[in-house]
From TrEMBL:
GO terms for molecular function: aldehyde dehydrogenase (NAD+) activity. Signal peptide: none annotated. SUPFAM superfamilies: ALDH-like. Keywords: Oxidoreductase. Residues 17-148, 190-452 form the Aldehyde dehydrogenase domain. This is Aldehyde dehydrogenase. It comes from Echinococcus canadensis.
Length: 482
């Protein structure tokens, strides 16, 4: 890691001009487009994800995000006029978004490509220099970033993009060209760098260097440490799900969508359903339909050689899930088979899981679904209120009143009626609350996340009459209303 990148705020050319941000965003888009096969191959190695899942959850959303930033960069970053007192009627008062400077992005392994690329695009669009720390467990994806990022932010590529940009916009070499020259020398050195190694190395880095902003996705315990280290230097930080099935819900649909949420990426997503609170009147049917859903997906319970079913990220995490299955006091409904060397865990459902159970004390991050019986929506709400605030709440009910009640009486990063997971697949902003996350990103929110707001006042010098009241001697006991 080149420590010079951390001095970007003192550079004469900080923040990166809007036109240069476009060039860097185009480089990111070219990376995703030109290296799509390599990206798919890396994610297949790391997570065993089917190509369709990879395209849907890791690549298409990244392309869309970058294209939206390119399309709206000017309007999303322009200063906005602010309300002003009467005394400022001759003046121009605005608020602008100013890049933090140096952003550190630390990714989890659950979506190792998307969790780097989307915030990276937002940070660059805001005008920052970026250090990315890919997940060390996703070794193939990690290596992909190490190999490709220097190429796509290298001097030769930058020069070609710059020449193309200048020709396209008919920039005269004797006028505007010169303002872009300073960026030629620092682009491949400091706009984006890759930090590799274990979490311990990241902690050492945080102790040694001071970043202007830290973006972290991963486990809450690691997030607490990141926040603690960031607090020592007052560095802002972004950190990153219950399901209620009502008696009025379409049970077949609910089971189908919940089980899909658990098998997608083998449940290794921050937005995967953690547990189901199922109304007692419909629980038997819900459990039956969970099995029917797997019959529909795979023709039965997946086996090691089943296609279109992923793998756990590592043998260590497979052992962790195996231990959860062994120690839970819940009643096994289906699944339960684990093959550690193959990093394979069958979709597994337990019912009658007690609140103190191991499945309820830790984030599962795998294809294990605990189902808890409740007698009413109010009981389910009380249960959720006693847990940490989640990134999302999923409510299956055909009654609008039930959903309104859940929306009113729960705190979460998002809430969905009659589906799971899809918050990250839509154009809405995404984030958590308290332990589940600080801050929000996606689209315009990404630029706002990686910037701080600065007030700007351009005062008139034409006539000082309106301002003379502030100068001594004072002729009134109290000032007039501004």
């Amino acid at each position: 890691m080149d420590p010079k990148v951390l001095n970007s705020r003192t550079r004469q050319n900080w923040p990166i001009p809007s036109k240069m941000r476009r060039i860097h965003l185009q480089s990111l888009l070219d990376f995703v487009t030109e290296k799509e096969e390599k990206i798919v191959e890396a994610l297949e190695i790391d997570l065993g994800k089917p190509p369709f899942e990879i395209l849907a959850s890791e690549i298409l959303c990244v392309k869309y995000e970058i294209k939206q930033l390119l399309k709206n960069l000017k309007s999303w970053t322009k200063p906005r006029p602010m309300p002003k007192y009467r005394i400022f009627h001759r003046d121009k008062c605005t608020e602008e978004l100013l890049a933090f400077g140096t952003v550190l992005i630390i990714s989890s392994w659950s979506s190792p490509f998307q969790n780097i690329m989307i915030p990276l695009a937002g940070a660059i669009a805001a005008g920052n220099c970026v250090i990315i720390k890919p997940a060390e467990l996703a070794t193939a994806t990690n290596q992909l970033f190490v190999e490709q990022i220097p190429k796509y932010f290298g001097r030769v590529r930058y020069f070609l993009l710059l020449m193309n940009f200048l020709r396209k916009h008919e920039v005269e070499s004797n006028s505007n060209y010169a303002i872009y020259i300073p960026f030629f020398g620092i682009t491949c050195q400091s706009v984006c760098q890759v930090l590799t190694g274990t979490l311990e190395k990241t902690k050492d880095f945080l102790r040694e260097y001071s970043c202007d902003f830290i973006y972290f996705t991963g486990a809450s315990n690691d997030g607490i440490y990141i926040a603690r280290e960031a607090a020592k230097t007052l560095t802002p930080v972004f950190l990153n799900f219950p399901v209620y099935v009502d008696s009025s819900a379409d049970i077949t649909l609910a089971a189908m969508r919940v089980m899909w949420g658990k098998i997608f990426n083998c449940g290794q997503m921050s937005v995967a359903p953690d547990y189901v609170l199922c109304h007692a009147d419909v629980q038997p049917k819900f459990l039956k339909e969970c099995r029917n859903a797997l019959e529909f997906f795979f023709g039965g319970l997946p086996k090691i050689d089943t296609k279109n079913y992923g793998r756990i990220i590592s043998m260590e995490h497979t052992e962790r899930l195996k231990e959860m299955i062994f120690k839970t006091e819940g009643k096994l409904v289906l699944g339960g088979y684990v093959h550690v060397p193959a990093k394979f865990v069958q979709p597994t459902v337990f019912c009658d899981v007690p609140e103190y159970d191991i499945l309820m004390q830790f984030e599962i991050f795998g294809p294990i679904l605990p189902v808890i019986t409740v007698d009413s929506s109010e009981e389910a709400l009380e249960y959720v209120s006693n847990q940490k605030k989640p990134q999302a709440v999923y409510v299956f009910s055909s009654k609008k009143g039930v959903f309104r009640t859940w929306k009113k009486h729960t705190e979460s990063g998002g809430i969905i009626q009659n589906d799971v997971v899809m918050l990250k697949g839509t154009r809405t902003t995404f984030g958590g609350v308290e332990a589940s996350g600080l801050g929000r990103y996606r689209g315009k929110s990404s630029i706002e996340l990686f910037s701080h707001r600065r007030g700007v006042i351009l005062r008139s010098t034409k006539d000082d009459t309106d301002y003379k009241m502030r100068y001594p001697p004072f002729h009134s006991a109290s000032p007039t209303q501004p």
